[in-house]
Amino acid sequence: MNNSPPGGPQGWGGQQSWGGNGWGGGSWVPPVPPAPKPGVVPLRPLSLGELLEGAFATMRRYWRTFIGVSLAVAAGTQVVETAITRPWLGKLQDLQSLQEQGKTVSVKELLNALGGTFGGLAVTGLIGLAGSIVATAMFTAVVSRAVLGRPMTAREAWQEARPRLAGMAGLLVVVPLLIGGVVLACLLPGLIIAAAGTEAAGVPFILLGLLAGAVLAVMLWIRYSLATPVLMLEKQGVIDSMRRSAKLVRGSWGRIFGVTIVSSFLVFVFSSMVQIPGGLIQTIFTKDATSWPAMIITGIGAIVASTIALPFMASVTTLLYTDQRIRRESLDLELARAAGVGGNA
After folding, report:
1. Helices (H), 147-252
2. Tens digit of each residue's pLDDT (9 = 90 or more) over 150-181
3. What is the pLDDT of residues 83-113, one digit of tens each?
4. 336: which residues sit within 8 A by CB, 6+ positions away?
5. What global pTM score does this model have?
6. Are 139 and 55 in contact (CB under 8 A)?
7. Which of 10, 82, 90, 211 is the least buried, fewest Cβ under 10 Å from its Cβ?
8. Do residues 178 and 220 lie in contact, with contact meaning Cβ atoms separated by under 8 Å?
């Protein structure tokens, strides 16, 4: 006579019981072994918490490499930015003083004050872009080794990143230009209508185009967000890296968007925590926000914030790329073999 409970030898909720003949009639199911973890993350699909924890773990474990590279990049960029911005702000302040005294500002004075603006912004932007290219390439190499539990010095990271810097530069120029072009295309109808003399009719089209452009910009931003680790780790070209990123993101756009937003918010919170005390010190000890002491205090806060933000975002992006390849291509098995640890069958 069969004394098994209704539903056969299944346990609670229809699951296989752990016992033998005297334990619900089911066979014993061995526990699933934990995924190997040779480095900063387990070699399996990762949750949001594990991605963020892995980024922080990478920064803690390889802090010398991260801090050295990011501090050099942040400090160099900020020094140039302060040196360019301070004279320009001084000229604008002189013009404001002339206006307050009731004096007319000549065209020549205005051009002298504003003439260096675009040149200064261009120099600052190029230096910042160059620093970001070098730092992101080096950090991506370090994180890829951290997944395997293997250390990497700054010199080794530089040797790994150097051959890919030209491609990184192309990628960090092409993607923003593409996004900017899409936004401009969305705004163009409204701008044309407004330029034709019907400003009132053009405003709704401009607002609608701005909204559509913002949505498309975010979609493209996430679509190509994994192109950097693809270019670095798979040694592909700029266009191929963008296509590969789009393929990896397809079907997981919402999840990648969520991870990116959360990590960006954490960076924003940390940056605010660093820069708010600097702003208070600046307000207490300096009355003029354009003075050298005030600019130096602001610059120090920006350097500290960038020193943490650059490696953190690079770590999250590289781990997200690794996670997507584990989910899509079973990269965990290949990584386990490379690390010399056992993977799940």
Report:
1. 154-161, 165-195, 199-223, 227-233, 238-249
2. 988 889 999 999 999 999 999 999 999 999 99
3. 766 555 555 554 455 455 455 545 555 555 5
4. 36, 38, 43, 342, 343
5. 0.78
6. no
7. 211
8. yes
